[in-house]
Design goal:
Layout (H helix, E strand, L loop, with lengths): L36 E4 L3 E4 L5 E3 L1 E4 L11 E9 L2 E9 L2 E4 L7 E3 L9 E3 L8 E8 L4 E10 L2 E5 L10 H10 L3 E2 L2 H9 L8 E2 L4 E6 L14 E7 L8 E6 L4 E5 L8 H10 L3 E2 L2 H10 L8 E2 L5 E5 L12 E4 L11 E7 L16
Parallel strand pairs: 2-11, 14-17, 20-23
Antiparallel strand pairs: 1-4, 3-9, 5-6, 5-10, 6-7, 8-9, 10-11, 12-17, 13-17, 14-15, 15-16, 18-23, 19-23, 20-21, 21-22
């Protein structure tokens, strides 16, 4: 496998996410039988971590046959084909949100028949498919909305080496590095953008896959087609692979800390702390590269003890012809000396970073 990070093209600065509006819904909501009819947006709605999004859903029913207070609106998240998580329920003036959605969700209530759900401060875990169900005493109907996030995929393995993570350990590894296990759709999108990675990794559905843009003998034969190659669903406890993690935009900034000399890992931890920051996690460095266009030809410690650096504009002395986050592996933490990448949350004194953060080397 290449150790030079993946080759997805660096994204332009974020455009403001385009929220789907109720007027994009199918117009024909009339039903002669008087039954409840639900319509949701075709396609998907897109936001980023920390954003606010509306999941569009409208319903029609025979007003003369039903009292508005008899209508129950229920939103659930589809975890897998047989598993659902309650998100939000409303009946009349009674509204209730569940679990991590408490305090972040409300109905849009834009006129009669609007069951659209507003989610604020969107998290990585909010990604996925949602079902809007409208029920009266006798009838019910449902519609589906897909919530997508803008972000970046990063392949990951820990210090132990490649193919050392079962499914549950892969989930934990992504969380520790500011990500979640990626979905197939997210990996496929990254492949369309040019991602090429030899090592197979877990995805959130329990499958093991890897994206190939440049077929070669060391990656499953040169004469095989490009695409996302699929090992199928593997045993979650017994089999070990790498992980494909997904992260979205940062509530803060990653920067290369200017220091008088190179640092060991313990010194790097202290240096970021002294600067009012933390050592950046792998996912934070990838997000800074992809979204904030961080470009630095300087090898530095990141939180998991690996040495990496982000390249937006490739040049020969900076490790190759493709943009990406270069990975130099896991050196001895005590005796090997490098720079360090720090992460500082938004609103925590960015002015102090003016001297230490530059976009190009």
């Amino acid at each position: 496998a290449s150790s030079m990070g993946h080759t997805a093209q660096a994204a332009p600065c974020w455009a403001e996410p385009q929220n789907s509006h109720p007027q994009t819904l199918t117009e024909d909501l009339k039903d002669e039988s008087g039954a409840v009819v639900v319509q949701t947006a075709p396609g998907k709605v897109v936001t980023h971590r920390g954003g606010t999004i509306t999941l569009p859903c409208r319903y029609h029913y025979d007003v003369s046959a039903h009292d508005l207070d008899e209508i129950r609106l229920k939103w659930t998240k589809v975890v897998d084909p047989m598993s659902f998580v309650d998100v939000f329920v409303a009946m009349g003036k009674e509204h209730r949100a569940f679990g991590s959605y408490r305090g972040r969700t409300a109905l849009q209530e834009d006129g009669a028949g609007d069951a659209s759900l507003v989610i604020r401060n969107v998290t990585l875990q909010d990604y996925g498919r949602y079902e809007c169900e409208v029920t009266n005493e006798l009838e019910d109907d449902t519609g589906m909305v897909k919530l997508d996030l803008e972000g970046v995929i990063f392949p990951y393995h820990p210090r132990l080496g490649r193919y050392t993570l079962n499914f549950h350990e892969a989930q934990e590894a992504c969380l520790e590095q500011d990500g979640i296990l990626a979905s197939y759709d997210q990996l496929h999108t990254a492949w369309l953008e040019g991602m090429d990675w030899c090592n197979a990794g877990w995805l959130e559905d329990g499958s093991v896959q890897y994206p190939i843009s440049r077929p070669r003998d060391e990656c499953g034969r040169k004469d095989t087609p490009v695409g996302v190659r699929n090992y199928g669903y593997r045993h979650k406890d017994d089999e070990q692979y790498d992980a494909f993690c997904f992260t979205s935009n940062l509530n803060g900034r990653v920067y290369f800390l200017k220091t008088y000399r190179k640092l060991s890992y313990p010194e790097a931890l202290q240096a970021c702390k002294k600067n009012g920051a933390q050592v950046a996690k792998v996912g934070q460095l990838y997000a800074a590269w992809k979204i904030q266009l961080l470009d630095k030809c300087e090898a530095g410690w990141v939180e998991d003890g690996s040495i990496r650096y982000p390249i937006v504009n490739p040049r020969s002395r900076c490790g190759g012809r493709e943009p990406g986050v270069r990975n130099l592996g896991f050196p001895d933490k005590k005796y090997k000396l490098f720079g360090v990448y720090c992460y500082k949350k938004a609103g925590e004194g960015f002015n102090s970073l003016a001297l230490s953060y530059k976009r190009t080397s």
